[in-house]
Specification:
alpha+beta, Immunoglobulin-like, four-stranded antiparallel sheet, flat, Copine_C
Length: 359
């Protein structure tokens, strides 16, 4: 895997934001004889005329309509054209992805700006020489990361799940979906598969608050438990709905389990209770604080401002200089200091600088 392309010196001065990209595909070509293709997506970025691999998704077994749990994070420079290329391969092992032409399922090129502007881009996949990859399409959904760059660490387990297998126990995994304002669902995380276990303990994982709930604690989350099938036909065990706010309250009250329900069973079976329960074992919030958070959190005693009055930056006696000492009004540097102080004062009053009114 190549190194992430470095932005040009001009771009480094431009407006920068971070963008999360979610990828899914439809109607991929089937390259396997006995099963379906095992797709994986490679993300490449153009740097100095060369395509450099930035990241790659997980491999999804035997699936021609994959929704990838991997979230690609890229830096978006507003004033620069950043070319991206998404390549989809049928994987025969993570090390071999992209190694053989016959594993290539199609590619698509666009720019970061196009994805950010449209928020949701769906394009056909192309093979080499501009040939369509059948009816294959790729969809990329973008979301700019908000000012809150915190993340949460979660750990789940389940108890007494329904057994979907005849000769062994279920192989459960858990998926968490965020429900957006338009009622669409975005896959947030997919756990590993725990083999032959009706009371699995899944590995702890970290996810950004932006990805989990768009930093809105009351946003609804849909959690689904599946029995894994190597042919891609996973059996539905059950689901439950919650919010990040509910998770936090439940953790504090030690009431940290949800009934996993199968709506079909609830209708058909008179004595049906649930298909097992899912338990929240741990929840840790890691906040990433802003500069003003540190100031207003008690670090203001270490806040120091220095002003360079050297001649290279202007003569304080010259009325054209930013350092000019005007006997009747403050200069530009003093105005800046006053503005910072007023922002901090408003932040202290309202908890959010945008909530106050600068005087």
């Amino acid at each position: 895997m190549g190194e992430v392309p470095e932005p040009s010196s001009q771009a480094s001065l431009a407006v920068l934001s971070k963008v999360e990209l979610r990828v899914s595909c439809r109607h991929l070509l089937d390259r396997d004889t006995l099963n379906k293709s095992d797709p994986c997506v490679l993300l490449l970025m153009q740097s100095q005329g060369q395509w450099v691999e930035v990241d790659r998704s997980e491999v999804i077994k035997s699936n021609l309509n994959p929704v990838f749990a991997k979230i690609f994070t890229v830096d978006y420079y507003f004033e620069e054209v950043q070319k991206l290329r998404f390549e989809v391969y049928d994987s025969h092992g993570q090390a071999g992805v992209g190694a053989h032409d016959d594993d290539f399922l199609g590619g698509m090129e666009c720019t970061v700006g196009q994805i950010v502007a449209q928020k949701r881009v769906t394009k056909p996949l192309f093979l080499k020489y501009g040939k369509f990859a059948g009816k294959s399409t790729i969809t990329v959904i973008s979301e700019e990361i908000s000012g809150n760059n915190g993340y949460v660490e979660l750990a789940f387990r389940a108890k007494k799940l329904d057994d979907k297998d005849l000769f062994s126990k279920s192989d459960p995994f858990l998926e968490i979906y965020r429900i957006d304002d338009d009622s669409s669902e975005q896959l947030v995380y997919r756990t590993e598969v725990v083999k032959n276990n009706l009371s699995p303990i899944w590995e702890p994982f970290k996810v950004s608050l932006n990805s989990l709930c768009s930093c809105e604690e009351k946003r609804k989350l849909r959690c689904v438990v599946w029995d894994y099938d190597s042919r891609g036909k996973h059996d539905f065990i059950g689901e439950f709905f919650t919010t990040f706010e509910e998770m936090q309250k439940a953790m504090g009250e030690n009431k940290v389990q949800w009934e996993c329900m199968n709506p079909k069973y609830k209708i058909k079976k008179r004595n049906y209770k649930n298909s097992g329960v899912v338990v929240l074992l741990d929840l840790k919030i890691h906040r990433v604080y802003s500069f003003l958070d540190y100031i207003m959190g008690g670090c203001q005693i270490h806040f120091t401002v220095a002003i360079d009055f050297t001649a290279s930056n202007g003569d304080p006696r010259n009325s054209c200089s930013l350092h000019y000492i005007n006997p009747y009004q403050p200069n530009e540097y003093l105005k800046a200091l006053v503005a910072v102080g007023e922002i901090c004062q408003d932040y202290d009053r309202w908890g959010d600088p945008s909530a106050g009114t600068l005087q």
